[in-house]
Design a protein that fits this description.
The complex is a heterodimer of chains A (66) and B (435).
Chain A: E1 2-5, H1 15-19, E2 25-26, E3 32-33, H2 44-53, E4 59-62
Antiparallel strand pairs in A: 1-4, 2-3
Chain B: H1 35-42, H2 55-64, H3 76-84, E1 91-96, H4 105-112, H5 114-128, E2 132-138, H6 142-158, E3 164-170, H7 179-186, E4 210-214, H8 215-232, E5 243-250, E6 256-261, H9 266-272, E7 280-285, E8 291-294, H10 295-298, H11 305-308, E9 319-324, H12 329-342, H13 349-366, H14 375-382, H15 390-404, H16 406-413
Parallel strand pairs in B: 1-2, 1-4, 2-3, 5-9
Antiparallel strand pairs in B: 5-6, 7-8, 7-9
Classes of the chains: A alpha+beta (66), B alpha/beta (435).
Chain lengths: 66, 435
């Protein structure tokens, strides 16, 4: 599973970086940089939570990289 | 004509190694070739009025090895198949936006051999079973638009095609040529890219599977369907067969659009264009998402993605500019960097903020004010972070300038510049020449 952000929807609220500090880092303008690697199974519940909490609904956990 | 009751007109197959192919029909006065003239030269359109999808056409395109001529170089046969597999009544969208300012090759085809483009669109439509083909043309390409408009009317009058054509004028913006942006626009939205998936081949115009193909790609289909894959492969290389149109500009004696066999040495193309008009410092290969290559390195290159890849370049939009020794690569790149930042669709934060910061840093470098230590990191950080490839392409282009013109950049940081020429790379959309 891969964590993706829809950059058109994202407004840089930064909730994802707060909730997933081990995966998401913010650039200097506050936009999230997504991890290149697939999300490990142990982190999946936390990632799903972050996906739900995004105020712009810009995050998704996708089965395969396209 | 293929109208019932009339005999099909066949012409002799042109010599497979003869050049030009796509531009063979162009008139001396550069006016658009009429339907009658076109049929006289090329023979009857390669598809009749029979319905349904034609898998054999897809097989033929696969066998030819034709790849997209818009910049992405995706295998055309594979794309046809992917759309055909989505179901019935897909749509063909011919991409004639040509948002790249230093390219005019698509406009040459639209304005001068419009029936070759429409034949090709009809072939694509027959291959996938489409009944509707939309031709979208950049607003600045007025001669191309007029030529296609007339050509469609000629064909409707003579009932040449099964597919029905629709002509759309697309905004003249750099990102409008992105296939998702174009689909979005044709659907009544802004000409801005959308988040993928779905890609247009899955869900495009009105949610229907849409085949988006560049003008030059479909023009190739018109010849391929007539003369076959073996003929097609007689020029170019085994892996990259056929010919491509290249727009060559800058310090050469006869700038313009040239049809070259893939694999032609860059040095040879410059000879075709009458040779350099001044000693060359570097070449920009592939348009504004392309790559700067130092002249010494570029001279030995073949115009072929597999060869260009060795210096980190690709044919991209097939626009090449020769930069004279008396021009400054940093100043040129800074001007284009600002243009590309301003041409962002404005949708994605990293592109809007990142490219703006990069362009500002380059402007400071160009004017010798200061160098920005974070520039390299910004360039790495914008790539892959937009909905489309705009930030990636811009960052690639700028990074190649900092590499090739490293000495010049150092000189700028010390307060001087070796360039004395006026601007070479245009950032203004003016009425483009059709040559």
């Amino acid at each position: 599973m891969k964590l993706r952000v829809n950059p058109i929807l994202c407004d840089g609220y930064g909730h994802c970086a707060e909730l997933l500090p081990e995966l998401v880092e913010l650039d200097e303008w506050g936009y999230p940089i997504m991890p290149r690697e697939p999300v490990s199974r142990s982190l999946e519940p936390a990632v799903r939570h972050a996906v739900k909490m995004c105020p712009r609904l810009a995050l998704s956990l996708e089965k395969r990289a396209r | 004509m293929t109208t019932r009751g009339e005999a099909l007109r066949h012409v002799a197959v042109p010599a497979p190694d003869a050049l030009p192919r796509l531009l063979a029909g162009v008139r001396d006065d550069r006016r658009p070739v009429s339907l009658a003239e076109h049929l006289d030269r090329e023979g009857s359109p390669p598809v009749g009025r029979g319905g349904g999808a034609h898998a054999e056409l897809i097989e033929l395109v696969c066998a030819s090895g034709l790849s997209g001529r818009g910049g992405g170089a995706f295998p055309t046969g594979q794309k046809l198949r992917a759309v055909a597999e989505q179901g019935r009544n897909p749509i063909v969208l011919v991409n004639g936006v040509e948002g790249e300012l230093i390219s005019s090759k698509d406009h040459v085809l639209l304005a001068q051999v419009p029936h070759l483009v429409l034949d090709g669109a009809a072939v694509a439509a027959a291959a996938i079973g489409a009944r509707e083909a939309i031709v979208a043309i950049g607003a600045g390409l007025t001669r191309g638009y007029a030529a296609i408009e007339t050509a469609i009317a000629e064909r409707e009058h003579r009932r040449v095609d099964r597919v029905s054509f629709r002509l759309v004028r697309a905004p003249d913006r750099f990102v409008a040529g992105d296939e998702t942006a174009l689909v979005n626009f044709v659907d009544g939205g802004p000409a801005k890219p959308t988040f993928t998936p779905p890609r247009p081949y899955e869900r495009g115009i009105r949610g229907i599977a849409t085949l988006v193909q560049n003008v030059e790609t479909v023009a190739n289909l018109a010849l391929l369907a007539r003369f076959g894959p073996r003929w097609f492969r007689a020029l170019g290389t085994a892996k990259e067969p056929g010919t491509v149109l290249v727009t060559l500009g800058g310090a050469v004696r006869r700038p313009g659009v040239y049809e070259i066999p893939l694999g032609l040495p860059l040095r040879e193309l410059v000879v075709w264009a009458g040779g350099p008009s001044a000693p060359i410092r570097a070449y920009l290969i592939g348009g504004y998402f392309g790559t700067w290559v130092a002249a010494a390195e570029a001279d030995a290159l073949a115009l072929l993605d597999s060869d260009l890849r060795t210096v980190g370049a690709s044919l991209g939009a097939r626009a090449i500019v020769a930069l004279a020794e008396t021009s400054c690569g940093i100043v040129e790149t800074a001007r284009v960097a600002r243009y590309l930042a301003d041409e962002s669709a404005g949708q994605c934060g990293p592109c809007v903020r990142g490219l703006d910061a990069v362009a500002t840093a380059l402007a400071q470098l160009a004017t010798g004010k200061q160098s920005q230590p974070r520039l390299q990191r910004w360039l790495e950080n914008v790539s892959g972070r937009g909905a489309c490839r705009h930030p990636d392409g811009a960052a690639h282009f700028i990074a190649s300038a900092l590499h090739v013109f490293a000495d010049e950049a150092a000189q700028h940081a010390a307060g001087s510049c070796s360039g004395s020429d006026g601007p070479v790379l245009t950032v203004a959309r003016k009425r483009r020449r059709v040559e």
